[in-house]
Recover the amino acids of this structure.
């Protein structure tokens, strides 16, 4: 049996503390990994949270106060207690973490909905309410109508819907706002006691999986997973350690990060929120991502750290308008970066540490990250195993691979989730080989691990195409297509073919200039399509050519972390194939 193991070890972490007890109450928790006696943590005046739109700053004392006030009201008015589930259905908000920690103070569980789009179907929200058995909903005003419809269908009284405050906008009539609930709780004595827990087993979150391969499943994440993954990231990055001159250290108390990733995604929840606050840095909370707005915020708040999802930056002319010299660290995940994208980031941020991480909801965020020894991660690599993490490569015949052999990536980490909530069959298929505290996660990703423990993720195994018996990875073709000068984004799926079994079809988003050329000339549309196909043909072996064709689309569907929702385009591709006459289908 070949098991790859991270070289660094972890300190002893308390397993009897809830998330807010560890992050908000445990003074000196950073000393668990500290070796530098000069590091004393964040100065009292440094804000923990900053509201992007208004510049409002919230320090630890106010965070504790608001968390207490909300917890008090959740107990007295709504009777939320041990193991009760509260559903958060919202975009980023400065009170989003307050709501999380208030529920956790009571021993409750947070169920997080991916997205708060008003067009989101109430039926899908109802599905999550029913799976998690949520008893209370906290919602963004824009998604209130969806929440109302789902609540009615689930039999949840409308008075059990709270609404986040958005700037100076009035709270919708008939609903209590979070700020009102905080004030109500602060006006009365403490009415709750925090339960004693086993953090390794006590559920903190029901985080619904991305749905890239089917209906979302509720991933059961205990308090310990969020705590330990934050510590793993801190140990890996030598947070609080005097390993280099101050100006060269990756994470320093007083630095400023920006939360452009949604906090309802595991990446944003653990790395953008809890790890950043553990590192005693300030976090700018952005409600809704917009590329130029992000650049403006970087300049305004002197942002030093970006934790984001990136496939390709856009519009260099816009980038040049802003002072981005403060950025010292960029970590990306969710989608592999091509050499071209990496080089683009290096040009824009010449002095920054830039690299990739890899993880999933089932591992409670990151299990790899680019090495602290490198200023720049390896293009195409996903980083090395995080401290305390082990990995296996399982080949198609079931045997375990060694260095540079390709197979399915299995991961063991102390941060791994407990399984899928109330779904024994799905849990058995993904969480295997151990007891509750030592389950391996089958990632469903094809990968290899080299001699330096760098993990190279090839693709989702279920997304691998078989063309005339050859395996073809969509991500490889997408990287090639993205290097075409007219392309802004791309996604490749396989479509059935009578001769080859399956052939690649590319959905392509053109950049602004190319799109304008197509608007004025049908001939130009044909020329660009042919140029993209030729570009792939010139760079890839014959069976990897875009024999299924190129379809131009306005955007590529992705989940909030930036992962391609390939299954949606597969359905679109099936419809295209049905509409095509047989003679136009590809033959290699």
């Amino acid at each position: 049996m070949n098991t790859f193991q991270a070289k660094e070890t972890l300190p002893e972490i308390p397993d009897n503390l809830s998330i807010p007890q560890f992050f908000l109450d445990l003074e000196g928790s950073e000393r668990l990994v500290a070796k530098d006696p000069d590091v004393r943590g964040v100065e009292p005046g440094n804000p923990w949270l900053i509201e992007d739109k208004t510049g409002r700053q919230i320090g630890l004392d106010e965070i504790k106060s608001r968390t207490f006030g909300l917890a008090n009201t959740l107990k007295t008015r709504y009777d939320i207690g041990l193991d009760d589930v509260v559903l958060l259905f919202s975009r980023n908000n400065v009170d989003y973490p307050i709501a999380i920690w208030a529920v956790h103070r009571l021993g409750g569980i947070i169920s997080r909905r991916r997205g708060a789009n008003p067009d989101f179907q109430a039926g899908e929200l109802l599905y999550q309410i029913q799976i998690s058995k949520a008893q209370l909903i906290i919602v963004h005003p824009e998604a209130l109508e969806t929440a109302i419809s789902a609540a009615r269908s689930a039999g949840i009284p409308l008075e059990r819907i709270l609404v986040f405050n958005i700037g100076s906008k009035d709270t919708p009539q008939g609903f209590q706002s979070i700020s009102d609930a905080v004030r109500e709780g602060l006006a009365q004595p403490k009415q709750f006691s925090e339960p004693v827990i086993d953090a390794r087993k006590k559920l903190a979150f029901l985080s619904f999986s991305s749905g890239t391969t089917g209906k979302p499943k509720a991933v059961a994440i205990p308090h310990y997973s969020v705590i330990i993954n934050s510590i793993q990231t801190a140990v890996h990055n030598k947070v609080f350690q005097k390993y280099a001159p101050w100006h060269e250290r990756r994470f320093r108390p007083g630095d400023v990060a920006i939360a452009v990733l949604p906090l309802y995604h595991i990446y944003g929840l653990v790395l953008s929120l809890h790890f950043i606050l553990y590192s005693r840095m300030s976090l700018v909370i952005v409600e809704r991502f917009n590329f130029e707005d992000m650049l403006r915020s970087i300049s305004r708040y002197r942002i030093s750290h970006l934790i984001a999802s990136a496939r390709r930056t856009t519009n260099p002319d816009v980038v040049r308008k802003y002072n981005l010299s403060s950025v010292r660290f960029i970590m990306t995940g969710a989608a592999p970066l091509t050499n071209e994208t990496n080089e683009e980031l290096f040009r824009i941020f010449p002095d920054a540490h830039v690299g990739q991480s890899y993880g999933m909801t089932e591992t409670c965020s990151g299990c790899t990250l680019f090495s602290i020894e490198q200023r720049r991660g390896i293009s195409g690599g996903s980083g090395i195993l995080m401290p305390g993490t082990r990995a296996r490569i399982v080949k198609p015949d079931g045997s375990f691979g060694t260095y540079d052999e390709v197979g399915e990536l299995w991961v063991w980490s102390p941060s791994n989730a407990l399984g899928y909530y109330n779904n024994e069959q799905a849990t058995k298929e993904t969480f295997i080989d151990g007891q509750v505290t030592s389950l391996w996660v089958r990632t469903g990703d094809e990968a290899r691990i080299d001699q330096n423990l760098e993990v190279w993720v090839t693709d989702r195994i279920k997304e691998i195409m078989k063309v005339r018996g050859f395996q073809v990875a969509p991500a490889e073709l997408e990287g090639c297509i993205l290097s075409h000068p007219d392309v802004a984004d791309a996604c490749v799926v396989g479509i059935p073919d009578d001769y080859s079994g399956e052939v690649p079809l590319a959905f392509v988003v053109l950049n602004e200039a190319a799109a304008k050329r197509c608007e004025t000339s049908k001939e130009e549309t044909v020329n660009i399509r042919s140029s993209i196909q030729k570009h792939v043909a010139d760079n890839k072996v014959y069976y990897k050519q875009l024999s299924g064709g190129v379809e131009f689309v306005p955007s590529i569907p992705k989940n909030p972390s930036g992962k391609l929702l390939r299954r949606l385009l597969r359905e679109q591709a099936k419809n295209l194939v049905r509409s095509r006459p047989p003679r136009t289908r590809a033959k290699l």
In short: The CA atoms of residues 122 and 147 lie 7 Å apart. Residues 583-588 have pLDDT under 50 and may be disordered. The first helix runs from residue 19 to 25.
